[in-house]
Specification:
With about 325 residues, this protein is of the alpha/beta class. The protein has twelve helices and twelve strands. Bound molecules: (2R)-2,3-dihydroxypropanoic acid.
Length: about 325
Amino acid sequence: MRPTVYITRRIPDEIIAKIVEQCDIRMWDETDIPVPRNVLEKEISSVEGLYCLLTETIDREILAKASRLKVISNMAVGYNNIDIKAAKEKGITVTNTPGVLTETTADLTFALLMATARRLIESSDCLRGGNWKTWSPMQLTGQDIYGATLGIIGMGRIGASLAKRAKGFDMNMLYYNRSQKPELEKELNMKYTDLDTLLRGSDFVCIMTPYTPQTRNLIGKREFSLMKKSSILINTARGGIVNENDLFQALRDGEIWAAGLDVFEQEPVCLDNPLLTLPNVVTLPHIGSASIKTRMKMAELAADNLLLAIKNQTPKHVVV
Ligand code: DGY
């Protein structure tokens, strides 16, 4: 009998066709609306495979309904949306899509860093709003990028790719990571430090670490108080790593200079989130990996992982 797979969002036709060659599918056929929890609860109870996005919370409660499920294939590198422990206990394989999004996400992180440092959004708004009266010596002045010190929190694949870009801008680099990376240090001329030293010494602090119970609210009031008043925080990892209330206060009170955020504690971000009222915050709707080529590669890799696990073969990227 052919296995059945539930796909939680409309994905590209060629990827659907690939899955349909080997499985029967059901799909939440929407592009912009996540599958409602009650629908997912019902669907998960009768399928062997789940192809899902980071917008789906796959917790212990929902997994209790998954009596036939063999694999959860997450179309993302991050998997904080899935209760890994509960999946493991039930013998369900969980897969993700690392590697294929590394360069695209590093590109976006550097773009956000530059946009924040040089106030690109504010500058564009100034022009379009009719406020460009004349060239003026200190109007819309920002922070230099070349020669500045970049602190990278989390030296995985994306952190290393970001460092390569920063090297081209003659940036000095500090990094904080669970383990030291001597090879990379030599190649990119980076210095391994503890978190506080990184925060004190950096002009830019980029968060590139996975979201885990250990990294939840890793950056809050105490950490902002250590940072330079001229420093910029960039987060393209997960919103929950930063305490948003503390970030708001630090930005409002001039404890740090600006922030560039692609991710938020709650997504989509509520329009009454106070961070959206600040001119020194550049905000994006979680588009780190959003290039056409990369999203296609992620969708395909998630399908490959799913199909291998369904056939009891080892997927390309197994989380548990
Ligand atoms: C991921 O893959 O975890 C990103 O946040 C989205 O590409």
